[in-house]
Amino acid sequence: MKSIVRNLFVGTVLSVVALTAQATGALAKPANILGVQATLTADNHYALFSGNSDGSKLNFFGRNEKGAYGGAAGWNNGTLGGQTFNTNTGNGYNWSGAESWNFNIKQNDYLYVVTWDDRAVDESWVGEFNITNGGKQQQLLSKDSSWEYLTTKYSTNPGDFGDTPTDAILNQEISGATWTGAVSRGLNDGTTGPWGRINGVTQNAQFLNTTTNTTGVKRDNSRYTIFRTKVSVGETIDPTKTPEPTAMLGLAAVGLTGLVAKRLRK
Q1: Got the DSSP string for 187-253?
Q2: Which of 19, 77, 115, 202 is most buried, with most CB under 10 Å away?
Q3: Cβ neighbours of residue 180 under 8 Å, at least 6 residues apart?
Q4: Type and span of the H or E element at 258
Q5: Are 219 and 119 in contact (CB under 8 A)?
Q6: Where are the alpha helices (H) located in 53-111, listed in sequence order?
Q7: How far from chain centre, in Å, is Cα 99?
């Protein structure tokens, strides 16, 4: 009997040690962290964030260039607004070329796209987000079924050369906000004017409307628009749920301890 108990005890210790090593290795890359490659653009400006539902914790990943130009070549070769640009230097409208960003995000975080315009002509944004969950990759697109938005109440449009709104400002807008379902302007397949086809973004993505004025006159766009995913990224892509390594460790230890106790009672 003593031999059996001793062997069970040693087996329990070895199992716990092995599971601890496995859990420690897994902690280097937590199971609830997703990899994201985002490619997007906005007419005229955007800033990309992730964060919790009330906007109290935000992570800034990047924004597009300031000013009206600097996008893809081939747009409006000539002079506009006193500035000269051409098709050879790739400095067309800023929205005509998408940027790409690579970052990690927690499963329970939301993606946020903050957009503002130049108060002229028209405005929208379009993008795709390729999300890696372990060895599995899924895609989230700018679609009216996946995103919602709000129009700012307290802060104004930063303009072509303005800075990205601060976390504190965004939190004020997001906290307690009423969200509205996004509105599609059409697919990124070359048929949606005036934007046509944005390279680097799948044609299945939709241009989402970012008009923020109520008068219909573009110069009255004194506010900007904040978009976010309707649910957390983890819920959006519906990843496979697996027990955390620490949970597995606890279950194994409890099970083996119970087995030893049972043997001792005999």
Answers
A1: ESSS-STTT---TTS-TTSEEEE----SSS-GGG--S-EEEEESS-HHHHH-PPP---HHHHHHHHH
A2: 115
A3: 148, 149, 150
A4: helix 245-265
A5: yes
A6: none
A7: 14
Contact 103, 61 (CB under 8 A): yes
| Burial (0-12, 13-18, 19+ Cβ within 10 Å), 55 | buried
121 — pLDDT class (breaks 50, 70, 90):
confident
Token duo for residue 194: 């005036």
Is the model's pLDDT at 258 over the cut of 50?
A: no
The pLDDT tens digits for 208-228 are 999 776 666 777 789 999 999
3-state secondary structure of 36: strand
Question: One-letter amino acid identity for 144?
Answer: D
Q: Does the pLDDT at position 77 exceed 60?
A: no
User: Which tokens is 220 given?
Assistant: 């009255």
**pLDDT, tens digit, 9 for 90 and up, residues 157-195:** 999 999 999 999 999 999 999 999 999 999 999 999 889
Residue 154: which residues within 8 A CB-CB, separation 6 or more?
Answer: 169, 172, 173
Ramachandran region of residue 52, left (φ > 0), alpha (ψ -120 to 50) or beta?
A: beta
Per DSSP, 174 falls in state H
Indicate if the pLDDT at residue 255 is higher than 70: no
